[in-house]
Amino acid sequence: MIKLISKTIALSVLTSFSMLKSQSVKEILKQKGSFRKDTVFSVKSDSKETYLPVTIIKGKEKGPVFTIVAGIHGYEYPPIIAVQELLKEINPENINGSLIIIPIANVESFQKRTPFVNPLDQKNLNTAFPGSSNGTQTDQIAHLITNEIISNSTIFLDIHGGDASEDLLPFVCYYDRKDAAENTKKANELSVKSGIEYVVSYPYTLKSTDQSKYAFKEATQQGIIALSIEAGKLGTVQKDNVKLIKTAVYNMLENSGTYVNRRSKVSKQKPTILLNQQDYIRVPENGIFYSELKSGDKVKKNQILGYITDKFGNKKHDIVSQTTGIILYKVGTPPVNKGETLFCIGYNQ
Ligand SMILES: [Zn+2]
After folding, report:
1. InterPro entries attached here (predicted)?
2. Residue 265: what pLDDT?
3. How far apart (Å, rounded) are the C-alpha atoms in residues 326 and 274?
4. Separation of 126 CA from ligand 1 center, angstroms?
C-alpha cells in the first residue's frame, strides 16, 4: 500500500511523516498563489519503509507543468547535485506554470551507495515502470511516479548519468514516437536547444499495453513530452557535468515557457549532432575487461575496441565494432558480466 503524505518540509523531522495528512500532487498543484512545497510520499513493504521526496514550485502565471527527476539511480551524482543547486536557485517568482522536482527518486540507493538497484528489494527502479501499488518498494516508487507525477506533467525530464561502472558521453535523448509527432517534435526542439552537443533519438515501438520499463518511456507512452539527459560517469560528481546539466535544464525551462528572468546568459552553442541509431555490444562471457577507449571516442566498423580475459589472464574474446560511430557509453571498470551492455555506439542513418 502507498500512503500519500505531504508536508512542508523540515528534512530533519522525516521520521514523523507517517503521522501526517495525505495530499496528492494534483491537490497541491490546484492550490492558489505562488509557492514552494516540499513533500514526501511514504512507501512501505515487508515492514521496510522508505520515501519519495517531491518539491512543487508553483509560479504566479499560467504555464506548463515541467517535471525534473534525478536519482532514479542513486549512484549517479551529477544529476542529483545539479538538481540540489536548482532547488537553491529557482524562485517561484520566476516560474510560469509549475515545476515538479524529484531530487532523489531512489533515496535508498543514494544513501546506501548502491549502484543500479534499490538495496531494499534489489530491483532497478528504471526498469520497473509503470510499477505497482502493492509490490515491493521499487514497484511502489515507480507506481507513484507514474500516477502522481507523470500523469500531472506537461513535460517530463528524467536526468541520469553513467553509474558507478559506466563511462558516458553527455547527451540528451527522446523517443521518436511517430504516432505522436507533435510531442516528438517538441522533445527534439527542447533537446536541440538544451545546449548539449549530442542529441540521441531512440526508436519507439511500444504498444499501449506493453510495459514501459523506463520512466521517460512511460511518460512517452502516456502522451507526455518526455526527455532524458545523460551526463556524468563513474560514480563521481564532476563539476563540469553538474554545470552542463544545470545549463541544459535552464535552457529547456526557458524554451518551454516555464522560466523567466534567468541569471546567466546563454553561451554560444556548438552545432547539434543527431544520433538516431544505436548499436549495443553485449558482454560475451564473464571476465576482466580491457580497453584503451573512452566515451566520446570515434570508432570504425571492424575495429577492435578491447578484449576480455578469464581470471587467469588468458584472452578469451576480442570485442569488435560492427558499426562506425561514437562511443556513447561503455563499461569503464574491469569486471564484466555476460549479457551486459559493454559498449553503446551511436551513429546517424
Ligand atoms: Zn541511470
Report:
1. AstE_AspA_cat, N-alpha-Ac-DABA-like, N-alpha-Ac-DABA_deacetylase
2. 60
3. 11
4. 7
What's the CA-to-centroid distance between 115 and ligand 1, angstroms? Answer: 9
Q: Choose among 287, 214, 130: nearest CA to 202.
A: 214
Neighbours of ion ligand 1 (CB under 5 A): 73, 76, 160
Q: Ligand 1 mean position to 62 CA, how many Å?
A: 32
Q: All 3 cell numbers of residue 321?
A: 565494432
Q: What spacing in Å lies between the alpha carbon of 288 and ligand 1's midpoint? A: 23
Please name the amino acid found at residue 312. F
- Ligand 1 mean position to 163 CA, how many Å? 6
How far apart are the two ends of the chain, measured CA to CA in Å? 46
pLDDT for position 21 = 47
Helix or strand or coil: residue 63? strand
Output the CA 121–ligand 1 centroid distance in Å.
17
Q: What is the reported pTM?
A: 0.92
Q: Scanning the structure block, which residue is given the C-alpha cell 565494432?
A: 321
Mean pLDDT per segment of 10 residues, for the chain of length 349 residues? 47 42 86 95 92 96 96 98 97 95 98 96 97 97 98 98 95 97 98 96 95 98 98 96 97 92 66 96 98 98 98 98 98 98 96
DSSP symbol at 17: G
Supply 128's cell numbers: 520497473
Smallest CA-to-CA distance from 189 within 246, 257, 108, 142 is with 257
Contacts of 167 (CB under 8 A, 6+ apart): 233, 234, 294, 295, 329, 330, 331, 332
pLDDT at 46: 86
Q: Is 24 helix (H, G, I), strand (E, B) or coil?
A: coil
